[in-house]
Amino acid sequence: MVFLRCYRSKYIWATLGVLALLWLYVFPVYRIPSDKEMVDEVLRQGQTWTRNQTGVDLYRMLLTECCDPKRMFAVTKENSPIGKVLWYDGEIYHYHTVNNETYPFFVQDTPLHLPLKKCSVVGNGGVLKHSGCGKEIDQADFIMSFQNLLWSRKSFVESMKAYGSSYIYIPAFSMKHGTDPSLRAYHALADSASDQTVLFANPDFLKNVGRFWKNHGVHGKRLSTGLFLVSLALGLCEEVTTYGFWPFSVGLDDRPVSHHYYDNILPSSRFHAMPEEFLQLWHLHKSGTLRMRLGDCAKEGQKPKREK
């Protein structure tokens, strides 16, 4: 057996090592800040916030170019005629072909009167509990919030009555196992002559929004529902304020915060990249593109007291 040795190889590896160090110097390894570091960053920023119309217009333009939220956020008869193939955005190789059975479920066109003025996007973060933000949230012209789809038909219909004349936005064509429950929800509301209008999330829109944020540094397998709705709001609303978006275990007062306001079940880190999503929203807050409400709305102007 003959071994061939290249005496130049050590110089090649030395060169590659230098290039790697230069790369790390120019593009340092990205690190998610710790909970404490994020709290310190928010406290340094303070509650002072100024709306930046240039930033608002820029993100509306970027989202329009990539995702066309005004026309594509929901499946409609206009953008999804019979025969249209809806590829599921959450699963590979699964799709639904619009047919005579499902086509009547779709609204004719976007039912919203655009642009929407002042919008509140309400997340499920534990920071929302005892925040005193309810009155401020209700002052918005349009409110986007979340609720689980209840399995009991009667309980679901009853729970929806509290929302009056509103829109129920359901991702029926994101994952195969979610299609039947979504269609059952549609039938339940239709049969009860509900005031709500069911809108099915367009998988093409969700897929493009996911690609948009991936290009901006969010590397989770799938975006959270919260970031999907914030993206929709940025594309449709003139002013956006978020509540309940805080994926960290401690609040601004250094006290423990549950992940949701109703439980402390953490999402799978393999599926969602919650800290990365928060950092993107925090960047938009600091730039004046949207406003994040993270503290106690009832204590506006007061600096949070940290435990000693």
UniProtKB/TrEMBL annotation:
Q: Which UniProt keywords are given for this protein, alphabetically ordered?
A: Disulfide bond, Glycoprotein, Glycosyltransferase, Golgi apparatus, Lipid metabolism, Membrane, Signal-anchor, Sphingolipid metabolism, Transferase, Transmembrane, Transmembrane helix
What is the protein's name according to its record? Answer: Alpha-N-acetylneuraminide alpha-2,8-sialyltransferase
Protein's UniProt keywords contain RNA-binding: no
Q: GO biological process: any one?
A: N-glycan processing
Question: Which pathway, metabolic or otherwise, does it act in?
Answer: Protein modification; protein glycosylation; Lipid metabolism; sphingolipid metabolism; Sphingolipid metabolism
One GO MF term attached to the UniProt entry: alpha-N-acetylneuraminate alpha-2,8-sialyltransferase activity
Gene3D superfamilies, from UniProt? Glycosyl transferase family 29
In terms of InterPro entries, this protein maps to: Glyco_trans_29 (IPR001675), Glycosyltr_29_Sialyltrsf (IPR050943), GT29-like_sf (IPR038578), Sialyl_trans (IPR012163)
Source species taxonomy? Eukaryota, Metazoa, Chordata, Craniata, Vertebrata
Gene Ontology cellular component list: Golgi membrane
Q: Which reaction does it catalyse?
A: [alpha-N-acetylneuraminyl-(2->8)](n)-alpha-N-acetylneuraminyl-(2->8)-alpha-N-acetylneuraminyl-(2->3)-beta-D-galactosyl-(1->4)-beta-D-glucosyl-(1<->1)-ceramide + CMP-N-acetyl-beta-neuraminate = [alpha-N-acetylneuraminyl-(2->8)](n+1)-alpha-N-acetylneuraminyl-(2->8)-alpha-N-acetylneuraminyl-(2->3)-beta-D-galactosyl-(1->4)-beta-D-glucosyl-(1<->1)-ceramide + CMP + H(+); an N-acetyl-alpha-neuraminyl-(2->3)-beta-D-galactosyl derivative + CMP-N-acetyl-beta-neuraminate = an N-acetyl-alpha-neuraminyl-(2->8)-N-acetyl-alpha-neuraminyl-(2->3)-beta-D-galactosyl derivative + CMP + H(+); a ganglioside GM1b (d18:1(4E)) + CMP-N-acetyl-beta-neuraminate = a ganglioside GD1c (d18:1(4E)) + CMP + H(+); a ganglioside GD1a (d18:1(4E)) + CMP-N-acetyl-beta-neuraminate = a ganglioside GT1a (d18:1(4E)) + CMP + H(+)
